[in-house]
Design brief:
Strand content: 15-25%
Radius of gyration: 22 Å
Number of helices: 9
CATH superfamily of the largest domain: Alpha/Beta hydrolase fold, catalytic domain
CATH class of the largest domain: Alpha Beta
Number of strands: 8
Helix content: 40-55%
Shape: globular
Length: 267
């Protein structure tokens, strides 16, 4: 067969293949966008290095916003305002071409991701990495007096006043100065920060990936029954344990996250 004939046949085969593949690719929709939030006293750069860059290389659009609980901002806005900031990150992803949205987070960011799914509109999936900050768990009962103090200040019209309140991070307790209304929004055991309550309110259409670290006492103490088992039944939900401590869980879980997103969301 001459080279000219072979080239002609090859061109025809390419056209036929593209006529099949292009519609199939287009029918799968646009890209998946991921809002990836850091934990308490973390920062966007740490999340980008731990997981964000790998997710981008895997083909996902990623936003790593600086949340109100970052090291630089801690804590300058209430929980509801934080959810509004997630709204803004979601909108940025949509403008970049994302037609499916995943809200993900580490530690305190994981709880915020779950709360966003429960209280703020439709998204396509939630990823929780080493969930932390659980004001409705037994470990936070030591802050009951501080929560009552904040509530009393709010009810007396002094919610915007700054006072000293108990806080914790990485298993260490200490005092923080912040507005009573802001403190209450995060530490109220019946508020937006309560993951067990948020889990029960998540739509059954939204799958959740819940990742814990085998060396992380924070999530180990919460257990599977705290929030994951309260989710509405969804066969795409996954509870996974990786070999990592609390801070190392995002990096250790990247492969699991990518695999799960491709199975549960990229359908």
């Amino acid at each position: 067969m001459s080279n000219r004939k072979w080239i002609g046949i090859s061109a025809v085969l390419c056209i036929v293949a593209l006529s099949v593949l292009i519609p199939a690719f287009c029918s799968s929709g646009g890209q998946i966008g991921i809002v990836l939030m850091h934990g308490k006293t973390g920062n966007p750069e740490s999340m980008a290095n731990a997981a964000g860059h790998a997710l981008q290389k895997a083909g996902f659009l990623v936003e790593t916003p600086e949340m109100p609980w970052s090291k630089g901002r801690y804590i300058d806005k209430g929980f509801e305002e934080a959810l509004n900031e997630i709204d803004q990150a979601v909108e940025r992803l949509r403008k970049k071409g994302a037609d499916r949205i995943v809200v993900a987070g580490h530690s305190m960011g994981a709880g915020a991701a779950l709360a966003y799914a429960a209280y703020h509109g439709k998204i396509d999936a939630v990823v929780m990495l080493a969930p932390g900050h659980a004001p409705d768990s037994p470990g936070y009962r030591k802050f009951q007096a501080d929560v009552a103090k904040a509530r009393m200040m709010i009810e007396s019209g002094n919610g915007t006043q700054v006072a000293s309140f108990g806080d914790t991070n990485g298993g260490t307790s200490y005092e923080r100065y912040m507005k009573a209304s802001i403190y209450f929004s995060y530490f109220n055991p019946e508020g937006l920060g309560a993951m067990s309550r948020s889990a029960a309110l998540v739509s059954a259409d939204i799958p959740v990936l819940y990742v814990t670290g085998s060396l992380d006492p924070l999530t180990a103490n919460l257990g599977k029954g705290y929030a994951f088992d309260r989710l509405p039944e969804n066969k795409r939900d996954r509870y996974v344990t990786v070999n990592a401590d609390h801070l190392g869980t995002p990096a250790a879980a990247v492969g699991v996250v990518i695999e799960w997103l491709n199975e549960a969301v990229k359908q």
